[in-house]
Amino acid sequence: MDVDEKQATRSTASLRWFVWCVFLLLWSVALLIPDPFDPFQRYVLGGQELSEQTSFLMAKTLHISAYAAAAILTGWLRVPGNWRWALLAFWSFHAAATEVGQRFVPGRHGSLRDVGLDHLGLLIGVVISWRWWRSNPEAKWE
Question: How many H-runs (helices) and E-runs (strands) does the chain carry?
């Protein structure tokens, strides 16, 4: 690998870590601020009032999708295999820790159900991005 290829590889790795960190920061903040949606207020989408069930389904779909994205981004980092799995364990801890943290945020309520849904999202993300999660013996820290 020549100097230009190494520089391009480092730039790509830096960009991936930047995206991963920004996602981590934004999702953490979103989970630990007061809930912008009042569960007792009716919301309108496309001129239709959303039912409580629809609002609940949308919120839980967001949880699953965000943690699936976290797993996909973690695989995309292309760090050595053991580190990838350690970062997935970090996201598992993040799911539980933010739910505990929500117990101290007005309008939020930590939930074991949400932790379970977050882990479902992580599993979905790993399945979607499995080619990045398989062992890559050539992956090295640059």
Answer: 5, 2
How many alpha carbons fall within 13 Å on the CB side of residue 5? 2
- Please list the helix, strand and coil fractions of the chain in percent, rounded to the nearest 5, in that order: 70, 5, 30
How far apart CA 11 and CA 30 sit, in angstroms, is 28
Q: Could you read off the pLDDT of 47-83 as tens digits, one per residue?
A: 677 777 877 888 889 999 999 999 999 999 989 888 9
Beta partners for 44?
49
Tokens of 18: 């930047």
**Across residues 1-10, what is the average pLDDT?**
65
User: How confident is the model at residue 81, as a pLDDT?
Assistant: 81
Q: Lowest mean pLDDT: which of 32-36, 68-72, 93-97?
A: 32-36
The structure tokens listed for 123 are: 């599993």
Beta pairing partners, 48: 45
Distance CA 53, CA 42 (A): 11
CB 103 within 8 A of CB 110: yes
As a whole number of angstroms, the distance between CA 142 and CA 14 comes to 10
Instruction: Give me the amino acid identity at 142.
Output: E
